[in-house]
Amino acid sequence: MRRISRITVAGAATASLALALAACGSTSTSGSSSSSDTKGDKGLAIAYDVGGKGDQSFNDAAYAGLKKAQQEFGYETADIEPTEGETDADKEQRLALLARQGYNPVIGVGYAYAAAVKGAAEKFPDTTFGIVDDSTITAKNVADLVFSEEQASYLAGVAAAKSTKSKVVGFVGGVDIPLIHKFQAGFEQGVKDTDPKVKVLSQYLTQTAEEGGFSSPDKGKTAAEGQIEKKADVVYAAAGLSGQGVIEAAAANKVWAIGVDSDQYKQEALAKYKDHILTSAMKDVAKAVYNLAKSVEGGKPETGIVRGDLKTGEVGLADSNPKFKADAELQEAIKTAKEKIVSGEIKVKSS
Q1: Angle at the Cα of 166 from the Cα atoms of 261 and 233, rounded to 5 degrees
Q2: Residues 152, 314: contact at Cβ < 8 Å?
Q3: Which of 129, 189, 212, 266 is the most exposed place for a label (fewest CB within 10 A)?
């Protein structure tokens, strides 16, 4: 276990980190931190995916895990924003700098960090690295934090099929990639298994993340409006920050939105739309981030593929909306589907 009795960080140590990271993304450091910069003496650091902190979704969930680790272990943490047009080399430099400064573990939030995590992990074998949403790295000091998103999306499909009155629902994916195909596949299967008469309109915002599929609320709003014009009265978005535009469009047109990754009904930035957020298909990125930090703190770092699913409780549906929670028929349908998925009776498609 690392030393965690600390005083607030001050002076050159923080200044040097901030200056060094300025070239590869803005950073914040916090915690009851160290009076020294001894390598290995700091705690969790995360580097955000496209959209950054404040996306009310994926990145904010990772930040919640960081804050929990900071509060529990009393150490210094760091979180860094992405920069526009950055390369894999830029990402690797960011992760390597955090490792060099003594942060452990260091987590890349999103599949786009795969090459960077692989490279940084080779250079810093004594540091534990994590990557969210990628399972391609097999290094001894890397934890691949992945989820069965298709299972939560199946339940979202059940909710959509049971809630639609028009018999038309929509899916908006941020970027046309295999990860988001899992959300689409699960959602469509859940809808069709529940009510084969319901039509699903599916659309992707962009072909690549660089085109803004995960970071453009205006694109999400336009896509949702198009689906609503075609009679969709429930729209599910798996699109990061772009999903905020989908939720806005749903609220403006008085139809249901289904959020993703975090419980978006509870998000302060979306409070004015919450009465139109039916539920959210969640994956507990916060728990995965915290658990990796806890494993390092305990001296037994997680490595290899670490998967969260319905059985482990790390994916599921939020029930914060009272109307959603009070619908007994809907809740029974979701409960039955969940039990069948966990037992293996229902095999959810991932593509």
Answers
A1: 30
A2: no
A3: 266
For residue 121, the cross-strand partners are: none
CA–CA separation, 318 vs 324, rounded Å?
9
pTM of the model: 0.83
**Helix residue ranges per DSSP H, the chain:** 12-21, 58-73, 88-100, 114-123, 149-163, 178-194, 217-229, 243-252, 285-297, 322-326, 328-343
Q: Spell out the per-residue pLDDT of the chain, length 351, in tens.
A: 553 322 223 333 333 344 344 445 555 655 533 333 434 469 999 999 877 888 777 888 899 999 999 999 999 999 999 888 889 999 999 999 999 999 999 999 999 999 999 999 999 999 999 999 999 999 999 999 999 999 999 999 999 999 999 999 999 999 999 999 999 999 999 999 999 999 999 999 999 988 999 999 999 999 999 999 999 999 999 999 999 999 999 999 999 999 998 899 999 999 999 999 999 999 999 999 999 999 999 999 999 999 999 999 999 999 999 999 999 999 999 999 999 999 999 999 999
SS3 108: strand
- Rounded distance, CA 277 to CA 272, Å? 10
